[in-house]
């Protein structure tokens, strides 16, 4: 299954890109803790709540234009939500393309391929990303 979504963010592509690749800025919009190494093959690990941990790896980074990563849920944690185990680490690919629009806005187009059954998706977090970028200044 492929899910596609488009949002407009009131920030430049440079700012949005930083919020997708910088752990300090990511703290403003997603998860309670995170580990990431934003480069091809680099780790992406986000803890949403006790036991609910998303795990993947960056597959492609094009400065200020594109971020792609695999996505899934770590199994076998004491507090893990059993509904998340249907999507193991690396089972999904999320691709986020950034395009500049008039007025300093960014069009963020995402595509996520994943198996049936996962109810939580990183695409829902794009709304939080949009709100977080409004709170900060331009970052390049």
Summarize the helices and strands and which ones pair or pack.
Layout: E1 2-9, H1 13-21, H2 23-26, E2 33-36, E3 43-49, E4 52-62, E5 66-71, E6 92-101, E7 105-113, H3 125-135
Characteristics:
7 strands; alpha+beta; 7-stranded antiparallel β-sheet; 140 residues
Provide a quick synopsis of the model.
By secondary structure, the chain is an alpha+beta fold. 17% of the residues lie in helices and 39% in strands. The chain has a 7-stranded antiparallel beta sheet with strand order 1-7-6-5-4-3-2, covered by helices on one side.
Which structural category do the helix and sheet elements fall into? alpha+beta
Please state the oligomeric state of the protein chains shown: single chain
Q: CATH superfamily, called what? A: START domain
CATH domain topology: Alpha-D-Glucose-1,6-Bisphosphate, Chain A, domain 4
Number of separate helices: 3
Q: How big a fraction of the residues is strand?
A: 35-45%
Corresponding CATH architecture: 2-Layer Sandwich
Proportion in helices = 10-25%
Q: Number of folding domains?
A: 1
Strand order of the largest sheet: 1-7-6-5-4-3-2
Distance between the termini: 34 Å
Rg, please? 14 Å
């Amino acid at each position: 299954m492929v899910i596609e979504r488009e949002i407009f963010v009131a920030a430049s592509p440079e700012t949005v890109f930083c919020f997708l690749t910088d752990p300090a800025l990511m703290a403003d919009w997603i998860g309670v803790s995170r580990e990431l190494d934003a480069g091809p093959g680099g780790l992406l690990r986000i803890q949403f709540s006790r036991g609910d941990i998303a795990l993947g790896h960056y597959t492609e980074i094009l400065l200020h234009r594109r971020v792609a990563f695999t996505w899934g849920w770590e199994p076998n944690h004491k507090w893990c939500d059993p509904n998340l185990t249907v999507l193991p680490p690396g089972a999904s690919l999320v691709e986020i393309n950034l395009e500049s629009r008039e007025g300093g806005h960014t069009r963020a187009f995402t595509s996520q391929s994943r198996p049936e059954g996962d109810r939580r998706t990183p695409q829902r977090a794009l709304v939080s990303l949009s709100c977080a970028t409004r709170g900060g200044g331009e970052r390049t």
